[in-house]
Amino acid sequence: MATEDGLPLPQRYWGILAIALPLMLSVLDSSIVNVALPSIGHDLGADPATSVWIVKIYLLVVMVLLLPLATLGEIVGYRLISRTGVVIFTAASLACALTRSVETLTLARGVQAVGAAGILSVNVALTRFVYPRALLGRGIGMIALVVATSSAIGPTLASSLLAIGPWPWLFLVNVPLGLFSLLASRTLPITPRHKDRRLDPLSAGLYVLTLSLFIGSIDAIAHSQGFGLTTLVVLLLLVAGFLLFRRQRQLEPPLVPIDLFKIPVFRMSVLTSICSFGALTMAFVALPFFIQGPLGQSEVMTGLLMTPWPTMTGLAAILAGRLADRYPAGLLGGCGLVMLAIGLGLLAVLPPHAAPFDIVWRMGLCGAGFGLFQSPNNRAMIAAAPIERSGAASGMLGTARMLGQTTGAACTALILAHGGEGGFVLTLVVAAIVAAGAAGVSCLRLLPGKTSVREGS
Fold first, then answer.
1. What stretch of H or E contains 406?
2. Cα atoms found within 13 Å of the Cα of residue 436, Cβ hemisphere only
3. For 130-167, how does the pLDDT look when each residue is reduced to its tens digit (9 = 90+)?
4. Packing angle between helix 11-44 and helix 174-184, nearest 10 degrees?
5. Cβ-Cβ contacts under 8 Å for 133 (sequence gap 6 or more)
6. Which ranges does the record mark as transmembrane (predicted)?
7. Cα(76)–Cα(190) distance, rounded to whole angstroms?
8. Cα(74)–Cα(128) distance, integer angstroms
């Protein structure tokens, strides 16, 4: 049985491995499929508009299931949710490798996303029970390092696998690693269960509907679907959101953690996370076009020039995780996001055909800033929640990240659709402004009365 002060050594190392390996697989799978999408579409005879659903269904399913599965984890135990997620993810990976039509592959990817949601929804909650309270920041830093490293090596790994074999190999590699993850997961702590709670089906349904309408509304706005359709979707979103909020006020504890939003540091950490990931996504969508267009670099050089960003994020996350156990998240996060904003601004003012070094050090500055922000912010979010609500905090952490990514991608599409030739630069400028705003929100946590963290209370 887990305690609030983590696992003893050497069991802690196995617990870390059991959390990190499935997390790596779920992040890697998202990035490597993006790279292989043209090859998959061509082999299956699907047009680009149809092929993109192979990626889109994965993101949508993960996002809508994070909070429900995190809540379920509080009821049945985080270990069970994580292990079940690994089983589903591994089995669905094999199904993806064996499929021979775009329809069945999309379906298999949806099932695979269910497993990924199980892994992602409780990984931070489990970290809270694996690491001692005094070292929680290091645990959160480890998660940030795994995510950053997986994101960095994803495109390279995909290219390497496609160079020696067909695209099904991208999914087949998950099978042995998934089986090993399942074996390692036996060492995960058995966390307290709250069997008196129930997962409210009506809340889950309203939550899925609200989130789907939110995604639909920003997609309609970004792609100029027409005033009538956009207005209808937004009105339906407002109605669904109102019904969801009213339902959550009747529940104890609620599916959507409105109880945790009463804690100032949690509320501001969530807002900071949404804004920062929005800025990150805007930059990552626009930068390849910007580097290959005005900056005149090749596709291969684009990948190399962008690598310093996730690399520095991972390195900074290690340091930030240790600092987060000693210094306020508002200070560390604010400094990191200011670095990110400056880096994005400096990228936006690069002259045509800038030297690679000028691009690289700006990328590194952005990555270091984001890494300095991410670990302390995530630690603040998870530590602010009472120990029995770790699952809700973990699910909200992932939901905030994906909301930011979805909104950032939609904003980029809107800017590029109406920004003309200067759309890429304008996107970077807007991303810098959003990052600066997030830095301001982060620093608000330093105000008197906003810094208290009810860790484990």
1. helix 390-418
2. 11
3. 888 778 777 877 887 787 777 767 767 777 777 788 88
4. 160
5. 4, 5, 6, 455, 456
6. 12-33, 53-73, 80-101, 113-131, 143-163, 169-189, 201-221, 227-245, 265-291, 303-324, 331-350, 424-447
7. 10
8. 13
**Token match 């092929």: residue?**
51
Say whether both 27 and 166 belong to one domain: yes
User: Tokens for 357?
Assistant: 């070094």
**7 and 145 share a domain?**
yes
CA dihedral 216, 256, 285, 111 (to 10 degrees): -80
Entry pTM:
0.79
Whether residues 291 and 243 fall in one domain:
no
Containing domain of residue 293, as a range?
257-457
**Contact 144/379 with Cβ under 8 angstroms?**
no
Confidence at residue 258, expressed as pLDDT on a 0 to 100 scale: 85
Q: How many residues does the chain have?
A: 457
Predicted confidence (pLDDT) per residue in 402-427, tens digit? 888 878 877 887 787 776 667 888 99
Same domain, 319 and 189: no
- The model's pLDDT over 73-113, given as tens digits with 9 standing for 90+, comes to 888 888 999 999 999 999 999 999 998 888 999 999 999 99
Give yes or no: residues 182 and 57 share one domain: yes
Six token digits for residue 234: 């937004």
Same domain assignment for residues 205 and 181: no
Tell me which H or E stretch contains 253: none
Q: Find the CATH number of the domain harbouring 147.
A: 1.20.1250.20
Residue with tokens 């209808």: 232
Residue with tokens 């309609």: 220
Q: Are residues 163 and 211 in the same domain?
A: no
Whether the ω angle into residue 448 lies within 30 degrees of 0, i.e. cis, is: no
Provide CB contacts within 8 A for 227, sequence distance 6+: none
Whether the CB-CB separation of 179 and 22 falls below 8 Å is answered with no
| Residue-by-residue DSSP string for 331-371 | HHHHHHHHHHHHHHHHHHTPPTT--HHHHHHHHHHHHHHHH
Residues 228-264: pLDDT tens digits? 888 898 899 999 999 999 898 887 778 888 888 888 8
Neighbours of 231 (CB within 10 A): 12
